[in-house]
Amino acid sequence: MSHARSEYEDFKTIAPDVFDAVLALGQLAGKAGLDKQLIELVKLRASQINGCAFCVQHHVLLSERIGVPVDKLHLVAVWREAPIFSPRERAALAWAEALTLLPDGVSEEVYAEAAREFSESELMYLTSAVASINVWNRFGAAFRWTPASRPAAANAAAS
Q1: Is 150 part of any domain?
Q2: What does the alpha-carbon distance between residue 55 and residue 129 come to, in Å, rounded to a whole number?
Q3: What is the rounded distance in angstroms from the CA atom of residue 23 to the CA atom of residue 153?
Q4: What InterPro entries does its record include (predicted)?
Q5: Domain membership of residue 118 as a residue range
Q6: Which of 3, 104, 105, 129 has the most CB atoms in a 10 Å sphere around its CB?
Q7: How many CA atoms lie within 13 A of 24 on its CB side?
């Protein structure tokens, strides 16, 4: 088991201006009106790809609090095979994966699918959400931030 090199709270103290900038970028998509559940699915998927345990746990817990169906949380890693996701969610997840795994760029097919489901403005803000979670993932994975524990009341309810 690896241990943290630094913690999330340390980031706020050591580089508060960077922390505030990344935090602000991450909030823009929601402020622009994109569905918060959709944003959380995208952030969760990118965090899975990037192997950031802190961010995966953070976005699972946040998703649960805002009412993302548990089945979607369990199936987001295999969203292509799970019929539970809407066309809009599928387009957003494909977009997130393409932007997270950039060596191949964004294919015309993925762009066309995203452009069918999102306005130009929405696609820009969705891109900002993907960009922000990828930045968070770089910090979380680099410093091995410790994932948050599930709140005690939620643990009791899950039993």
Answers
A1: no
A2: 13
A3: 27
A4: AhpD-like, AhpD_core, CMD-like
A5: 20-141
A6: 129
A7: 6
Low-confidence residues in the chain, pLDDT < 50: none
Helix/strand/coil (H/E/C) assignment for every residue in the chain: CCCCCCCHHHHHHHCHHHHHHHHHHHHHHHHCCCCHHHHHHHHHHHHHHHCCHHHHHHHHHHHHHCCCCHHHHHHHHHHHHCCCCCHHHHHHHHHHHHHHCHHHCCCHHHHHHHHHHCCHHHHHHHHHHHHHHHHHHHHHHHHCCCCCCCCHHHHHHHC
Contact between 106 and 98 (Cβ < 8 Å): yes
Cα(159)–Cα(157) distance, integer angstroms: 6
Per-residue model confidence (pLDDT) at position 151: 84
In a domain, 12, yes or no: no
Sorted by sequence, the CB contacts under 8 Å of residue 99 that are 6+ apart come out as 46, 106, 127, 130, 131, 134
Put simply, whether the predicted model's pTM sits higher than 0.85 gets the answer: yes
